[in-house]
Amino acid sequence: MNNPTTKGRLGKDLILPILVWVVIIIAFLNVKNIPIDFGEKNHQVVRYAAKFIMTILVPLALIHLLYKDKSDFGIYFPKFLDSFKLSIRGYAIGGPAGGAFLLIGVLGLGFQDWLGSLILSVVYLVVFFFIPKVTKSLPTRTHIVTPNNTILVFCMLSILTVIIAYFTYEYVPVISKILYYIFIVGLGEELLFRGYLQSAFNRYFGKPFRIGNVQFGWGLFLAALLFGFIHALVVAPPTWPWAMFTMVIGLTLGFIREKDCSILAAVLLHALFDMPLVFFTV
Q1: Cα-flanking dihedrals φ and ψ of residue 74, to 5°?
Q2: Is there a contact between 199 and 14 (Cβ–Cβ < 8 Å)?
Q3: Which band of pLDDT confidence, cut at 50, 70 and 90, is reported for residue 153?
Q4: What are the pLDDT digits (tens) for 11-20?
Q5: What is the C-alpha R_g of the chain?
Q6: Alpha carbon of 65 to those of 12, 61, 216, 272: distances in Å?
Q7: Which helix (H) or strand (E) segment is 209 a member of?
Q8: Do residues 189 and 270 make contact, with C-beta atoms less than 8 angstroms apart?
Q9: pTM (two decimals)
């Protein structure tokens, strides 16, 4: 599983995932160019739906169509309580690190400035350093062999989020925004980057590294790199400083995914990281 021993593995487990990443960036950049006037009312709904298709539907379809054994893609969610504890333990150190955003604001900087992004990157590198220590006492799963369809329930909740946004965004936007950051941003970005990309890269490169009893490989670093770059590239012109600190956050999410052996804890932690955006974005 960890070494490319069959013909075509290079294409399926390395080249194709990167091509999918490129196509998704192009698609995001062109959503605004769809020749339909959606109007201000439906702008957010279209955005939610597009993100659902590109970060949830596409990677899940690729996993199901291309791989017979899906047990190492993190899409099976056993023992919710273990994943929940892991995400909370991660947030215990990662949450306070969010205060760095206030710090750079006081300094007159932003995350799109190089200095602001550098400060955030250093803070979240410290988080990445301590995450293995604060989660050490929690269970580490190495392989999930019993399939379940819980991921489909989460996908249905993502679709429900789009429907709720359509009917309520004008009146109570906070409801759909909370659901959006959990079931579309958290679920979608983790399914794409830590579920599909990181797992496919793991199949190609293997998992030769270890921190404690958590094994990981170059897939963690490559997925984090692509995670950072996509944040810079989906806007025009690209915001390169944004890529730096989001890449570092991707390292933590990647480690949590490997410890949990599913994307669930990473989804929950990602949603917790993003929750302040509910009140500070339009």
Answers
A1: 75, 15
A2: no
A3: very high
A4: 999 999 999 9
A5: 18
A6: 11, 6, 25, 31
A7: strand 209-211
A8: yes
A9: 0.93
